[in-house]
Amino acid sequence: MKNNRVNILAVDDEDFIIELFKLFFSRMGMEGDACSTPCEALDMFSRAMEKKEPYDLVFADTNIRGSKGGAFEILALLSSRDPGVKIIVMSGDSNHRILENPQQYGFAGAFSKPVILQSIEEKIKDVLGMGIK
Known about the structure:
Layout: E1 7-11, H1 15-28, E2 31-35, H2 38-50, E3 57-61, H3 71-81, E4 87-91, E5 109-112, H4 117-128
Helix pairs in contact: 2-3
C-alpha cells in the first residue's frame, strides 16, 4: 500500500468492466489501473514493482479474448514476478467451478459478474483484511 492507499490492477477484455473499475478507483480515492490483456497486465505489474509501487491486488477475468487461459494465464505470469500476488478472479458464468473455491486454484477470492461496485469494495476488504482509504 502506498501512503496507506490501496493500489489495484484490473484486467478484463470488456471495455465496460474496465470503465467500471476506473470509476470505482476514482470514487473510492484509490490508486488503480486497468488493461485488457495478460501481456499488458504483466508489463504494468512489472513497472509498478520496479517503481516500488506494487499492486496490492489484481482483479482478473476468467475469459479474455486472445488469451490462452484468462485469469489462469495472468496468475502464472504475475506469480513469476511476485509469488505472493493476490488475484481475485471474476467470471460471467455463475456456475464456473472456480467460484466455489478460488483458493484451490491459487486465487485470493472470486465473484461472479455482473460487477457491482459494492461487490468490488467488499472483496477488497475481505482479501486485504482492511478498510479502504
